Amino acid sequence: REKLPQYNSVDDAVALLRRSRRIVVLSGAGISVSCGIPDFRSKDGIYATLMREGKYDLADPQEMFDKEYFMSDPACFFSFAHRIFPSNFTPSPTHRFIKLLEERDVLLRDYTQNIDTLEQQAGITRVLNCHGSFAEASCTNPLCGYSVAGSAIKEDIFAQRVPYCPRCHAPAPPKAKAKAKGKSKGGWNDNDSDSDEAERDARPAGWGVLKPDIVFFGEKLSDKFDRCLFEDRESVDLVIIVGTALKVAPVSELIGHMPHSVPVLLINRTPVLHIQSDIQLLGDADVIVQYLCQRLGWTLPAAPTGTV
Ligand code: OAD
C-alpha cells in the first residue's frame, strides 16, 4: 500500500477531522491505560506483569487468554480474572473524544479490541467489541448454548472460583462408588454405560464452564466483524487508529480492508511500524485528542459517573 506524502502534520490532522464525515476508529488497550487498566504489551503491561510475578503456570503470558489452555486449566484464568473485570473505572478523554465524534454524527464505527466496556460507559453506541467483553458469559460446551449476563458470574470471579454451567455441568461420580451400586450418580443419567463414563472422563477440565464472552486466542471473531467491515468500507472517509500495537489479527488487518485512498491517522504512544499511516501523532492519546479538540474548537463531553 503506497502512501503519497500529502498529509503529514498536526495541521493536516486538524483539517482532516474538520472535513471528515464517516470516521472509522480502531482502538486498543492504550486508551484505557489512563483509567488505571494496564495494556498488554508495554513494559508495565499485563503480559510483562504476568511473567514478572510468576504466579501462574504459564510458558507464554498469552496462554492466559488462550482457549486450549483455558480448557485444560480454567482455574488459572479464574484466579486472575478479577484483576481485569470491569469495575469502578471512568472513561478517559480519548473515550470521550470517540463519543464526541458520535455526537457530531461523524462516527461510522468504533472497532474496539478492549473488553473493559468503557465505550459503553462513555455512551458510545456505534461500537463493535471485536474481542467480546465481560458483558456476558457462555457455557464452553458448544452444544449447550447456555448464556448469562456477566454480572451473574461476578461473585465467582471475585471469589476466584470457576463458574459452572447449571444446565450441563455435573461432576462425574467417584468410579468405585458408582460401580459398587451398579449405577452412576451425580446428575447425568441412570443409564450411563462404561463408554459414556469414559467419554466424560476424557472431557477437558474446562468443559461446562461459564466462560466470559471474551474472544480468546484460538477462537473466531463474531461474523458481525466481517459484516461491519464490508458495510463500512463503502463510505469511510478517515480511519483513526488509537492506543493499539496492532499485533493481533484479524483486527490488525482492518486497514487492509478499507479503500486505499482513505487517510489513516495514528495516535499512539509508540510507533506502529508495520502499518502505513498518513499521519502519526505519537504521545499520550488523551493529551493529543485534547489538543486536537482545542484546535478544532470542540468540547469533550463530560465524564460520565457510575458504571454500566
Ligand atoms: P497492546 O498492549 O498490544 O498495545 C497497546 C498500545 O497502546 C501500545 O502500542 C502502547 O504504546 C500504546 N499506549 C499505551 N498507553 C498509551 C497512551 N496513554 N496513549 C497512547 N497510546 C498508548 O494492546 P492492544 O493493541 O489493544 O486480545 O492488544 C490487542 C489484543 O492483544 C488485545 O485485545 C488482547 C491482547 O492479547 C485478547 O486478549 C484476545
Automatic annotation (TrEMBL):
GO terms for molecular function: histone H4K16 deacetylase activity, NAD-dependent; metal ion binding; NAD+ binding. Its cofactor is Zn(2+). Residues 170-203 are annotated as: Disordered. Zn(2+) binds at residues 139, 144, 165, 168. It comes from the Eukaryota. Residues 3-299 form the Deacetylase sirtuin-type domain. This is SIR2-domain-containing protein. It comes from Tilletiopsis washingtonensis.
